[in-house]
Structure prediction request, 1999 residues.
Amino acid sequence: MIQEYVTLLAQVLNLVPEDDSDLISILCDICNSYENTASKDELYTYTTFEISQRFNNIEPTELNFVYDDTSKWEKLLSHQSSELSYIIALHIVLCLIENSIVNKQSFAKHPAMKSFVKARLRGNEMDPLLNATFGELYCHVFAIQANAEDIRFVYENTYPYDWNIVENIASQITDQSMQTHLLFENCYLTFANLKIPNSFTLQVTLELLNTTSNRVITLGKNTYLEIRDTHICISNDEFITALFDGFEFEIGVIYSMILCFDAGSVTLFVDHVFIQTIPLVSDSIEDLSTVELGSMLSFFAVFKFTILDYCITPNQMASKSTICAFGYHKGVILDIDIDEIIMESDKNMKVFTLTDISDSFPTGKCSYYQTSDIVGLLLNMNVMETFLHRLIVEKDSSSIRIMTSHIIKYLKNSAMDNHFQSIQGNLVLNYILTLKAEIGNIIDIKVVEDLTELFTLMNTNTIIEENFIAESPLKILLNFRLIPLVDVAVFEQLFIGLSSIFNKHSSRNVNSISEGITILQRTILFQLHSSFDTNDLNVIISDCAKSLKNLLDILLYCNIRNDGTIVHLQFSYFCLKKGHITLAKVLLESLDSVFTQYQIDDRDFLCKSIPINLYVKVIFILMQSSIQHLEILKVAYSILLKLFDKQPGFFAQFTNSNGYKILLSILSTHSISEAELLTTILNVSASKGTVKRDLFYKNILSPPDDGISLFSHSVVINLLDSFIKRNPFAIQEFLLTFIEYLKKMHQRNPNHILFTSPYPIIQSIFGLQMNLEMLAVEKLLPTVNVCNKSLLADIIVQKMKTYDPESFKTLLSYIVSYSENSKRPKSSQICQKMGLVFLIVPRILKRLSALSFTVEKDHSKLVFVENILHLVSISSASWKVHDASWEALINTNLVILKARELISKSDFESSFQTDILRNLNSVQEEIYNWIVANGIRKDSNIEHDMIEQLLHAMLYYQEVLFIERHKETTLSNEVLANILTFIRRVILMSEPHVQFLGLNVFRTICTLRDASLPSISKTCTNESSKCFEFLAKSVKSDDDTLLQALRDATSNVLFSKSVKRLQTLYKMDGIRMDGHRRVSRSQLTHILFKERTDEYDRSIIDSNSIYALFKKDNVNLTKKMVLIEERRLNDYLADDRYQKEAGYACALRVIRKVASTAYLRDFKSTREWYLAARENVKRQRIQLLPVFEPIDFLPSLKLKLQDIHKHRAALPHSDTASTIISTQDLNVDVESEGSDQFALDKNRAVLQLLRKDERILNIWNASHIIGLLAKPGVLVLTTSSLYFISGCYYDSNEKKVLDLDALPEILRDLTIDSLSADLITKSIEADAEIESLRYGWKVKTLNRTIKRPFLLRDTAMELFFGLKNTIMFSFKDQSIRDDVFSTLKKYAKDDKHDSIWSSILEEVNFKSNVLSSKNGISRTSISDKVSAAFTSITKYHASEKILDLWQAGSLSNFDYLMALNTLAGRTFNDLTQYPVFPWVIADYVSDSIDLENPKTYRDLSKPMGAQSEKRMMNFIERFQALKDLDDTSTPPFHYGTHYSSAMIVSSYLVRLQPFADTYKTLQGDQWGPPDRLFNSVSRAWTSASSEASTDVRELIPEFYYLPDFLTNKNSYNFGTTQNGKEVTDVALPPWAKNDPKIFIEINRQALESRYVSEHLNEWIDLVFGFKQRGKEAIKAVNVFNSLSYSGNVDINGIDNDIERKAITGIIHNFGQTPLQIFQHPHPPRKCKAYLEVEDEDVRKFGDLKPSINRTADKQSCICLPSISHRDIKLKNGGVKHAHSSKITVLSNFDQSLIATGDSIGLIKLWRTSKDGLTFLRCFCGHESSIKSIRASLQCDTIISLDTHGTTIVWDLKNGTVINKFSIMAKLVAISPTTGSVSIAGEKGISIFDLNGSIYCLHETAEEISAIAFMDRDVFWPYKYHEKLDTVLVATGNKITVYDFKLVQQKWKLLPQQSISNHQVKSIVDIKVEINNNGSEAGKLKKGTSLITVDKDGRNWSWE
Prediction:
């Protein structure tokens, strides 16, 4: 059965089967053949394969859809089925869409398809797979036809999001293949008249659809860039000139290809990677003025094509700084805009081809694929901000992770990323995720992978700089608190990802990024250290050790010679001290690893700022601190060895210095595992470079043959000496292993450095033997003792065989002088020699005696014999002790015999042989003499086996002993006599076999030396003849006979002489002690051991003293290292807090922006209105700015407020990075760092403010005065900006910024401290205006600086920026203020033509010193007095110019009063000195008001307290009563309250912020009783004028210009009065008709009335003049509390804290009288009222005639710059792709400011200059094409209109929404001077005030075609005019001038003049400008210009 939807599918598809099969059958088969469980991707793969196999017409440019009957599509797409076959049917549609750009565009552009798909997505819940399929279909439509409604559908209307759609859109904006492109198929596009030089760069981004033969570009006439067999080549008509065979191209892959042509060669880069440089066969390209993209043999898609007039170098390519896509550059010859090509070309919309290109060739076709401006829409609709807000609100962990991942994906688009950075998105995201982490919602491994990928993609070649972290995803990646501790795999992935990122950087920027790398190193370490406790950190490091170390290695490798080594050494020590052992270990391992790599690379790794000795010192400190942590000791020791290896000279010096002793002292303190430590030392020295060494013996590696190995072995043996003393058993096993290891090492390589000169190891082994011998006495370590002796014997024997005699002597001399101290006492060295003789030589001789001395003609044998002679000669003492070792003597004898035999049988030269034999004989004679002398003693302990060996040797070597071949080479007669005597003595008591040997020797001697028997006999006895006879007979006697003869007593006499001689020898020639007692071996050994012990004790004392000195010397260094790192860590944590605060502030801005977007979308949101701190030219603050709040504000953010001090938030561009830049830490003198207690250094708070090109010029301590708040901090002047940071203090002596809380009282401004704490610290952060201004101001915008009083002290100043923004600062004293004033005054650039206020402010400064002095608030210096003497001041102390203007009526009463307030020190910035204005109207009860009636007005000659007679008398009585008290401390006064105070001001303005908060602060954080609120003008007047005894208040300026303060716009709940009436808006007098605007206007008219003009001077006398003080004030009943007058109290002179705080509080809260300006009566006004003269501009309007404007005046609205599609063009350049969509509007606001709007509703603001255009900000909120943009620069306001009729008012300064008008508009205009708005709608013209309140609707039947306000000159605002504005309205070709004014208490537009001309067709634009060209005699020349544009675009000038 064929399903219905399959039939429908067949009806809407145009598919050609491969065979003749039926289409429906094939489709049915495809839809029903899939049986597996399906996923979306699997279905797509299946469907794609089936379609490609079964149909023919599946091509990229094929149209496979049929739209003849839309209902079939509707049925197909709305079919209610969830069957898999239906889903497959939809997937067939999907596959066809994705396969063909024609299918995709035709489907998307069909008007019904989007609605069909969206209907399904909006409908009932679908199967997930089906829903995903429809989501895919919608995304394809979205890609082509997205609009604002679609953005709302995806991102605003539903939540949770359809994540598949969200992710698909992310792919659309990041996948190059989904971007707009052209597909060339055998066609080309020509670009002619190009000026291409010989050296140029060609860049093309394309996708090849054929790699066999594909000609892509033609340069000039016959040079081709083409693909041949997967390789790119350059060819001409004859041959290939260059073939790039180093890269193969593939079909379907998008490549960014760059070719650089330069000097006869061409270089190829693919995807920014260098491929090849090839010389061109032909040197030039013919006719380079023409380039063709594509050809008749082409098949490819192109996305970008650019030509530059210079050649890019590989270095430029590496930095990706080649081609800027944003802006016209001089180097760009061609940069095609594919969107523009598509729009301007003729198109076949059915198959989406460019017909003017495609139709040129029969086989050619140029298809296009054009996407909607998705990125522009996303930005304009604030999607990234919405994401962030959703993330804030979201509580589900899974959703948080998903949303974070999707945010990251969107950031892969560069435009999205740039926008994200502009809103400090990384900072905000990090802050939000940190909040989420605190409640358990943390990121997973997927987020880490996405962040890593994003960072790699966006910053592959970015050089790491200071702000690197803040401006990238590193902000989040390096926030380790976001990662769950239980999931160590996330950390592993993070470290791996970071390593991959920085590895790419390090390969390019090893030497240029050290500062940034240092920041990264420290950030990672600080994060690890501060984010986890020790146990958690240990887990992370142990599980991620390899990846973390690799990351640290990469960073260190780039920075090792700068600050990297400092970081690792210093912070590792810090970690050791803080218990983070594992982190210290990884740091040191990384340092060791990188040192190794540098060694391998043969590069210097030593830090240039650290001397080598400091390196070693720090490493010693590290070893000292980690002495019980073997793994750290190991790494530190390895690093030390690498330093030695790198500095051989220093190494040699070190080994002979105290450094070696210190090292041993440190290591010897290790007590946990001595054996492991010693093994480690050996193995560390064996591990060098990349050479892997095998285990040589047990767990000891094979040692290298170098000095480092020698050093380590010496260290080990020296340590063994210490450890043996401490606990011999602990190292017994190691000793055996070590000795055996050395023995095997010696056997393998006896010439290894360990065993060669200068023999330190042999020396050390011998010294070790001394210790072992001492232990042997106690029977300890006997096995070790034997092994070590054997080792020494082996070594010495080997040297005897190979060394020449001198070398061998040197060896022995080194051994016996064992010590590193060459000045060792001689007695000590003698003991050492005895140790060798008695302890080692016997072992050597035994070893030698076992050797076979072969006879060869070899000189080495002779050397061997000579060495034997030397050894025996120095060991003669061994047989001269009374208990000599018989074994040693016998072995010595045997060795000499073997040597004699060897020499005797050799073929050496005769004389040489004789000399050797003589020497041997001499030694042997001495040996025999001592043997027999010892043997004949009665107490001799000679053993029989020894006698046997001795006799046996004599027999065996009888030939060399007894036969004289050379003279004096055999034993002498005396020695033979002695031997015979010995035999006779010992034979008698020996066993038979010994007797037998003795008798044979006896006979042998007599036989072989028969000729010498007479001489022998004489030597034996005095009876020589008898002896001779006896000896001669013995030769023939048998054994028994001879034995019996020898036993015969008579034989005694025959040997008596020999016996006596031998006894004498033994007695006299032996070694003696104390000159008489013969020494024994044990005695000498005891002496040796004592000397050894004493030597050891001396060395220990010496080492301990050196080590103690080392530790003492390093106290400061160690303290400093910890202190520096603690400070850095504290700084980092402080910065982290600052970043959180900044993150909070930025998040708040994002939330408010989203809330403002919700307001524009008519969603729920709230607005709180603030009175902006900006002023207009009249010094009026008239603009309200909203702060938007969403309804669903996140509670956790509010909870965070307790930890956030918002007044300390950093600027958006600040970063932690700038605060942790390393210096030469280890070289800083710690004394300068202070003690353990130090104030938190807040220099970083200042540094964070600075931009890259700024440097600090001055820092001052100041208090920022904002309303009632005084915020202490520092004022920082840089080369371009002025910053204020609250909560800080600058210590000029220490040159650093400190935390104010830690500041000692002596440094504080005590006057500021005297204020309430709430008034010092309370923030008004929410004020959007202040939030944008509070931290930084551009110095170049500073117009004026004026001195101001504060708290009746002359210590403050105001700064005027652009005469709109004023900032007030107070200083500790006048001298500091004057210094700041003088400095900043140099930067002020006053434009005297801006307004009349320039003259007023100049007057303030001109007279400030005089006024301050006369008012007693400043001391007048001599220079001031001299200046005052020459200052021309009128008797009224007022500017003659201003006074004249006022008197003449050219200056309104309002402006004159504002001028006087300013002169008197009054300012909007200080609520305690707020400008004061008079009540002028006294009638607040009548229904109508007559301003000509004097009774309407108050009595201006009297203060408010004297307005009623009764109350005046009460005040006079009070004055008299106080006077009668005669209390000098309390002068009498009339009024206990003041007419102007902070409470009065804030009560008037309580319905607006920030005054609402101020009022609540003064009321104890509550509104107070509702009845006491300002809720009625009439009631307030009655109270102030007659009723209340404590109320004498005057008014504030707002009563004359700001109607909004009378309305409860913020809907505050003030409560209800006692009579039950709710307090909301202020009740107005009846004559105001309940309209605040009417009230304000009538009040203003009254102020400017005849009566007030005549009497205003009288009120001036009371407030500013001669009646303010003294007798005249008493007469006028105008005396206030004395503390309200300047000069009556010196706060600084009050020492008592309580009194000072009390008086300061009174001054601050009670009110302050203005400075007295006039000492004499003020002159009256000459002009008694304002003069409503004829408006000259309007009068001349009717005479204007039009003419065509052919010059396009530069100031007109239709002049340059101009727009071209998405570009802005200027004569000197412009901006390429200024918008991502077509620009529809360009508006010139003035000579330097323009705005552009585009087709999707995005508005951009630009600044123009001689250098071109600079982008300032975006205005996002419209949902359709921008139709009009107008501005009032005076009010910093923009108004915009889109094609849907939506009108939005914007804040020009920060791009935020102010208001949206509800009426549908056709035209809009805004007044340049007042900010009033006119909207032309269906019913007529609506007029609104600046703050959106409607004045009136002027209905008109005519179609309005244009509307505008009249611009006015700079003097216009200062005169009073009844009309508020003049409006120009065009209807067709007629322009009518309307006056807008209040008429009979109604607002009306009154027509005045009209002009028209038949030449001008329908007018669509009007602009009136006043051009001020200069000044003359104080007057400004002006010229009025009227320019109109008709519907044909022609410009008309009316003159």
In short: DSSP finds 68 helices and 52 strands in the chain. The domain at 1476-1710 is CATH 1.10.1540.10 (Neurobeachin; Chain: A, domain 1). Residues 211 and 830 are 91 Å apart (CA to CA).
